[in-house]
Q: What sequence folds into this?
């Protein structure tokens, strides 16, 4: 019996976006990363094009993390007091194609490092590795406007991805990205309408639609991931139904969320029924990453190199063509 | 009944006789469409029309019952392609395989290990549902023996994985009453296998080589008058499994394609736990009725997989809540730590919890899982109610030696009433949870002394 394959005809396409610029393109990167461009739901090769595979970035901080659990301390503990060394280890030992640098040291209630110091750190990391960078603030709105502006200036020509622009605080960061030619992450709080509204605000400022990445703010597996998952599915369906203001690639900070819950932190003594801590967190991050891929994630930012590897292996399998003769 | 009134009307006799109690056939059709009338009320409806309407009204995916007793469960009965359109109803069954090629002791050990894969998290029990015994030995006697050992050591649902009819028949002699799933009927064995399934009244998996051969085989088994089925397209590569799962689900929901109107079974084919976990997460998100794993038996590996299932099958129409009206400790709070009042809507609660940098108490007030401002606007987060809960349902008064409750700046307006009713001082904290870090680091000491 010949089954007629239920193919859906989509009108829209996700924007294609490149992070990083090589020497010919005016930067100093030795490689670039391109994501997006899909004309179909995640990995459904039989009804559309998936020109670029989703990418898994590794996340590093610009100061020694305070509360990262043991499995992360084990892999990064020897380099995490030096962001340049840390970035090098990500690339050289674990083959990271993309690195996310989170500038927590700028936090006013922490080290409160100045914009100049932050700009130096960004330059150091750019010197240390050739892969493109994602640059993230410390979470304090006012301070982030200051440091991200400085970072954007210091890295002019490098075509980085910088975050976060939010509905109530987007103009400074967006302007810095435009002036110095970077891409911007538009973060909305698990809400498709705010996501769309923010993209409208950004494009009204003349940010190009192919220079925006959507961060739908995913919650950890086990703690509301499904909300974000459904919002992501709806954003992607919007893109495929030709809504330009939803047609941007999506980024998920899975590492930050996955390693912040009891399941990845509690010791075996505390939770004997949950098994070994050394594998629990890695698999938690792996399962979370592979699930949100089905929601339409284009960039995943992970914290453990082993989960990065696991998710990449999963992506590779899903990128093999499925077909119907 | 899943049909529009016009579609139903076309199949009615259109006599407008009124014998059904409705003035016209169209009016009757409208009542039928809303499930407010039964087709039996019409004396003239033809058998052909009755059949067509019944088929159209049948659920797009049949419900199949598997197992008995505590572990009995329903698969299938799904109506959606995306969970946000309504919900996914029946959780993917998670099975782990046991090979009959192992010796008795090894089988016993493995089953014991599988039997421990039950977890409690956020107030719910999540667990592995099934054990799949695989006939790797190719020997009917060994299979029966292995099935018997497994059955003796666990109450979980059994899947009998063998294409050898004799092996299945023998095994059923000992476990037929546990309503196991027989895996599988194939092009080569389907007549006899269906006979065995029928005799024992057990659900039967039908395995094709691809979607075409699966549809054909499912029809053949249905022609033998057996519809207690689970289907497998035969795909093992994640990319093809995803494609097949999607096509099967779409054909059921959009086209009412009956050969596929059954729950599916998928197999994770990875060689390491990590590969299996990646595949299983994908299959759970994408429509699998059952997923069978073989490498993933450790507690630490299975917890994430079962949590993915718990999340994906969570009903999006019902807000997710945390246990309300109790004191939750963050870090290791002492008698000087702040007491933060919020709602029991999970997202609100965890965004507060996530922003607390050091030790504190949080009391989530029962607001039926609504957020702070929603709850306040709906009168579910008022001073009197919070006062009663804090003083009568919690022991927070014994845990701290200060007299201060912290609330969000968004609901500063309730502080007067709350102070008056509770006898506590109210500290108005930041409006957004993201300001809590700063608040506790810089302001709490002063507030404590004020």
A:
């Amino acid at each position: 019996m010949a089954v007629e394959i239920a193919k859906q005809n989509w009108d829209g396409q996700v924007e294609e976006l490149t992070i990083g610029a090589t020497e010919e393109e005016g930067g100093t990167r030795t490689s670039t990363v391109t994501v997006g461009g899909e004309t179909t739901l995640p990995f459904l090769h039989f009804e559309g094009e998936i020109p670029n595979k989703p990418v898994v970035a590794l996340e590093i901080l610009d100061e020694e993390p305070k509360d990262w659990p043991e499995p992360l301390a084990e892999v990064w503990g020897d380099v995490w007091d030096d962001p340049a060394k840390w970035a090098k280890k990500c690339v050289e030992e674990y083959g990271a194609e993309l690195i996310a640098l989170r500038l927590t040291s700028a936090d006013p209630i922490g080290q409160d490092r100045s914009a100049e110091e932050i700009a130096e750190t960004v330059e150091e990391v750019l010197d240390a590795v050739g892969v493109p960078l994602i640059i993230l603030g410390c979470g304090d709105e006012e301070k982030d406007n200051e440091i991200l502006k400085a970072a954007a200036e210091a890295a002019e020509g490098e075509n980085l991805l910088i975050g976060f622009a939010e509905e109530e605080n987007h103009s400074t960061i967006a302007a810095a990205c435009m002036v110095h030619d970077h891409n911007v992450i538009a973060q909305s709080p698990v809400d498709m309408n705010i996501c769309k509204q923010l993209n409208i605000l950004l494009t009204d400022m003349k940010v190009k639609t192919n220079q925006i990445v959507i961060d739908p703010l995913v919650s950890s597996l086990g703690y509301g991931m499904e909300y974000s998952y459904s919002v992501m599915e709806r954003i992607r369906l919007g893109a495929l139904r030709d809504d330009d203001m939803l047609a941007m690639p999506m980024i998920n900070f899975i590492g930050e969320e996955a390693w912040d819950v009891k399941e990845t932190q509690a010791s075996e003594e505390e939770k004997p029924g949950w098994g070994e801590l050394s594998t629990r967190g890695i698999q938690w991050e792996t399962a979370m990453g592979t699930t949100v891929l089905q929601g339409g994630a284009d960039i995943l930012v992970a914290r453990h190199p082993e989960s990065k590897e696991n998710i990449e292996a999963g992506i590779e399998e899903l990128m093999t063509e499925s077909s119907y003769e | 009944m899943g049909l529009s009134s016009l579609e139903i009307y076309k199949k009615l006799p259109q006599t407008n006789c009124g014998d059904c109690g409705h003035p016209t056939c169209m009016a009757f059709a409208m009542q039928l469409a809303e499930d407010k009338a039964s087709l039996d009320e019409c004396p003239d409806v033809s058998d052909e029309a009755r059949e067509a309407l019944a088929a159209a009204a049948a659920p797009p995916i049949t419900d199949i019952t598997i197992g008995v007793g505590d572990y009995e469960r329903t698969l299938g009965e799904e109506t959606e392609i995306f969970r946000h359109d309504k919900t996914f109803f029946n959780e993917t069954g998670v099975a782990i395989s046991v090979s009959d090629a192992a010796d008795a002791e090894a089988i016993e050990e493995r089953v014991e290990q599988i039997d421990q894969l039950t977890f409690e998290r956020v107030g719910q029990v999540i667990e592995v549902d099934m054990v799949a015994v695989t006939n790797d030995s190719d020997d009917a006697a060994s299979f029966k023996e292995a099935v018997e050992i497994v059955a003796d050591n666990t109450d979980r649902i059994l899947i009998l994985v063998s294409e050898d009819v004799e092996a299945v028949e023998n095994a059923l002699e000992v476990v037929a009453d546990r309503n196991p799933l027989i895996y599988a009927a194939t092009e080569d064995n389907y007549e006899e296998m269906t006979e065995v399934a029928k005799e024992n009244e057990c659900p039967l998996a039908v395995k094709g080589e691809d979607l075409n051969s699966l549809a054909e085989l499912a029809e053949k088994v249905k022609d033998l008058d057996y519809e207690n089925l689970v289907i497998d397209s035969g795909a093992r590569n994640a990319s093809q499994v995803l494609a097949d799962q999607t096509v099967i689900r779409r054909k059921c929901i959009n086209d009412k394609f009956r050969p596929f109107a059954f729950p599916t079974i998928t197999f994770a084919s990875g060689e390491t736990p990590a590969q299996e976990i990646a595949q299983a997460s994908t299959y759970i998100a994408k429509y699998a009725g059952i997923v069978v794993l073989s490498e993933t038996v450790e507690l630490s590996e299975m917890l994430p997989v079962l949590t993915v299932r718990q999340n994906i099958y969570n009903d999006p129409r019902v807000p997710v809540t945390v246990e309300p009206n109790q004191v939750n400790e963050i870090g290791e709070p002492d008698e000087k730590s702040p007491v933060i009042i919020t709602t029991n809507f999970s997202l609100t609660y965890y965004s507060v919890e996530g922003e607390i940098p050091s030790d504190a108490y949080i009391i989530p007030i029962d607001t039926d899982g609504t957020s702070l401002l929603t709850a306040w606007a709906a009168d579910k987060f008022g001073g009197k109610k919070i006062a009663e809960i804090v003083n009568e349902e919690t022991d927070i008064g014994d845990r701290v030696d200060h007299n201060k409750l912290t609330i969000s700046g968004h609901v500063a307006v309730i502080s007067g009433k709350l102070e008056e009713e509770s006898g506590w001082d109210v500290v108005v904290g930041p409006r957004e949870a993201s300001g809590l870090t700063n608040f506790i680091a810089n302001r709490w000491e002063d507030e404590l002394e004020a």
User: Anything to note?
Assistant: Residues 277-295 of chain A form the longest helix (19 residues). Residues 14-319 of chain A form a domain with the TIM Barrel fold (CATH 3.20.20.20). Strands of chain A lie at 16-19, 33-36, 55-61, 99-102, 133-136, 161-165, 183-187, 212-215, 251-252, 299-302. The radius of gyration of chain A is 19 Å.
